[in-house]
Amino acid sequence: MRDSKLVGGLALALLILAIAVLLLTVLFSGILNQGGVSPEIAMWAAGGLAILAAALGLIAFRTPAGKVAAIGGFLLLMLILLVTPVSFRLT
């Protein structure tokens, strides 16, 4: 039981990190471009973190943090997959 709580907490932390990377990419994409970092790479990183959060959340689904991370990770991944092609076609 303790292990699943630890995994659930880790999954929730990864979800929060993925959301932070996504928000920073959206809000400061101009600064990222000037710094030599492609916003597309940052979106890939946020998607990867969302996948990890969803997978670990499914492993620890019996805990509340695991449920939040699993569902939130899948929703964030779907949002990234739907928004990314449209936003990069417009730029």
Structural description of this entry:
There is one protein chain. With 91 residues, the chain is an all-alpha fold. It has one domain. It is 88% helix and 0% strand. It contains 4 helices and no strands. The longest helix is centred in the C-terminal third of the chain and has 27 residues, at 64-90. The radius of gyration is 14 Å and the shape is elongated.
Tell me the layout of helices and strands.
Elements: H1 2-27, H2 29-34, H3 39-59, H4 64-90
What sequence of helices (H) and strands (E) makes up the elements? HHHH
The total of helices stands at 4
Envelope shape: elongated
| Unreliable stretches | none
Instruction: Report the sheet-strand fraction.
Output: under 5%
Query: What is the straight-line distance between the termini?
Result: 48 Å
Mean pLDDT score, rounded?
87
Major beta-sheet overview = none
Radius of gyration, whole Å: 14 Å
Short description:
With 91 residues, the protein is an all-alpha fold. It has helices at residues 2-27, 29-34, 39-59, 64-90.
List keywords for this structure.
0% strand, single chain, mainly alpha
